[in-house]
## 1
Amino acid sequence: MAQETTTLRDPVPPLAGSADQTLAHSRETLTQRALRSLLASKVAMFSFFVLFVLIILAVFAPWIAPHPPGEMSLTNRRLFPIFSETGRTNPAYLLGTDGLGRDIVSRMIYGARMTLVVAFSSVILGGFIGVMAGLLAGYFGKWIDAVIMRLADLQLAFPSLLLGLVAMALLGSGVVELVIVIALTQWAIYARVVRSEVLKVKELEFVQGARALGAGKWRIIFRHVFPNTVASMLVVASFSLAMAIYYEAALSFFGLGVPPAIPTWGNMLADARDIIFRDFYAPLWPGVAITITVLAFNLIGDWIRDFFDVRI
């Protein structure tokens, strides 16, 4: 009888809890969902932490750097890092000095500032040109689409780094010139991605409804079509930032980017060419910084792509 009167427990939680949970998720804002997704991804957290540290170093470089980046000390030339046991060291220079006695830590910190300035400026300029071109090509079509896409195909037909080398050789070295050249090597990617998004969005019901209600072409483009391309644009921008850092370092290494007097990671690699076989640490630190930064931006791009992917 005891077994017959035993109350069976429901192995399934009440449906009310599931409904409440679903309702809570539906009320989440985009920012809340992004934060929850970010906290769930250790790789994305690491990447954003790297970006945060770089921004802090770039903004507060004059207060963080232990020495002026251009200060030379002939008595402290080619010092090894303080943890090295094979050469001269100095506690005042944590990572050693280069061939002119300049502090590597200070030049790394100031190099982060110039690297991020060039990367973000070129991506903003190239993204603006490419997004506008993609919106016009995708929405208006016809000869406008044909002209813009042929220009994009022509630009993509050449290797970007080779095109940048030729352009910088013609324009001369300089920060402004470098930003313009990198932007012009990246606009075509934005144009093609945005155009493909516009071709899908402009045929949807809400766009046709806005057109039927008498909305103008430009209002439809910027009010209804453009917001639906932001997700793809952010993904492209994150990868473009990584490529811009790589291009800046490569062009500066060849002496065609930022002037040598301005500390950048690419210039540090160029300065270490003559002493690389004896003082291997001199090109090691900027090379590691470039690798970690490029990897972080690529991982951020992967996270943004996964976050906006409705299939996930």
## 2
Amino acid sequence: MTQAPGSECPFKGLSSYPIPRDPACPFEPPATITRLRHEHPVSKVRLWDGNEVWLLTRMSDVRAMLGDDRFSSQSVHEHFPTWSAAIKAQKTTNTSFLRKDKPEHSYERKLWQAFFAPANIAALRPEIQGLVDHAIDQMIAAGKPVDLCRTLALAVPTGVISKLLGIPESDMPFIQNVGTTRTGINSTPQAVQKSLTDLHAYWMKRIQERLTNPGDDLISKLITEEVKTGHTTAENLASMSILVLLAGFGTTADMIAMSTLVLLQNPQTLAKLKADASRTPAILDEILRYTSIAQHGLARVALEDIEIGGQLIRAGEGVVANLASANRDEEFFSNPDRFDDERESRFHVAFGSGSHVCIGAPLARAELQIVIDTLFRRLPDLRLAVPMDAVKYRLEHLFFGVDELLVEW
């Protein structure tokens, strides 16, 4: 038996999960989540397939769980939490380091981590700046109103990741379509499986091409250092590449659009940012905390009996860390439901926490900062071209965002 998202299950009084945000208050976590954080911070919820899992809603419990290696990220476990049939369809096909534990996770993550080191990100900044300027040129040329999501928010991270991985930009519409299918709550299992199979075949073909004709991109370097030396296989590199690729543009595109929207909703904050660009990183951290686009959280399975927040979680039980709720925890953030550009927000968990914290966070931060600073410097009169209440939010999706943001200047 399955329940509609957000409904109350008729048995045991468990809430159905995920619980969507209220369309009338899209920036607020669901009221049920807030109530659970206050009254039952470690509580059982029921997923779409009847699987009962523990939901963590406090910052201390979320950080404790995500930092504990006794909670597994391997989705092959029987009770590993999933949000829909489409997500469950990926349990056996997602073999990237996102779904591995130590030591395999540590080794594979280390292969990529150097590329996201501060020195490399700093070296990329001029190229990111060029992509941002080009995208804004295209916005202006297109005439107003223009969809910021398509012309800027998606264009910049797509250009960055395609350059890093040596992917022709002409291939990116196919890859973007795979990403949309994979993260859509309402996608069918068949569509998800086909899209991932097609993307894996795509990567295997590109890896085979680079084996004989390497370039100067990140994948060619890994082929030379890891595949040709026998440290990993072409199939495993393909799985890792899919993760980095799909994570490298979709969520950053969402955050560019959402950051622009939040700033347009808060003109006093926007004025501070325009007056002093050194404030941008701190303001963006508050936006990351406030929006928490990974709206359903991170899933794990307990490998042994573990106590979290005073509750014993048995070996084999699924656990969900609700990042959006943790980022609204009153014990960590004063008046957390208010957007406050003076707040110290850098200890949020919008990028996760622990050994699986988002590996691409430094790159995402750089892209966000360059986009926002450049956008409002070049188009200081930027404004929404539609009423604020006409903006359509993406609520039934893994990541909170908008599919269209019409602007003018």
## 3
Amino acid sequence: MTSQTGSMGKQAGSAPSRPARILLWLMQNWSGALGIALLLAIVVCALLAPWISPHNPTVPRLTARFSPPDISLVQMGTYPLGTDQLGRDMLSRILHGSRVTLAVSLSAVLFGGVVGVILGTVAGYFGGMADRIIMRLADLQLAFPIMLLALMVIAVLGPNVVNLVVVLALIGWTRFARIARGEILSLREREFVLSAVAAGASPVRLISKHLLPNIATPMLVVATLELARLILMESSLSFLGLGVQPPDPSWGRMLADGRQYLQSAWWLSTFPGLAIMTVILSVNLTGDWLRDFYDPKLKGVR
């Protein structure tokens, strides 16, 4: 009996910690590790852009117009990714553009997520008229073309960073609301919720202490996947001239400015396009990894 107890204690003591389990899961899922590594590298470059950019991204240098990419880095003052039609360094503009793109998209995901989770929780927990009104609003917005809605709102409010965040948050709240509602509907009949109700817990305490913590994980996965969609939307609106305005660099705007020079200066559109593709790929890979890691139906490391 003692040996069995000691053996069980030994096995329990040898269980890996949660960071070790996450690391093991990453080693077994190379795509998730690649996505996280790429995303961390992009975030670090965005945060350090003012210090690692070789040139000022907004100052034109007409004598250096259309300089081709020079990756030799033999001497100072070269342009690793070339220059644009005004002689501005493409590498510096891409680094600073990452700050704009990530800041706008993350802010929109945050605001849209908060609004969507609140409305979805109210609809799922209280039901009735509140549920019908909120869900019909979500259905109405989903039935309306997203890009057309964004163009209409931007045309009325005017193109600037604040309005762009508002538009993207308006686009993104519906997905959070619908998923939060479904999660709340599945949780409100669980034993721990019914026990809290029987103990006299108020709806505010029940939602804040019991329901919201249990939907945090799926909401995190949704936020990660939604971030990639909003990055693409921000780039699309900037491409159309309705996003971040000059002289602030934006990947979508850079892509639009370089399209008329595709034959003579291919790098003007190629590098911003690669930047957009890389950040969306990294966010999608990270979101897929989070979904697989937290999916209870998968035999992952827990």
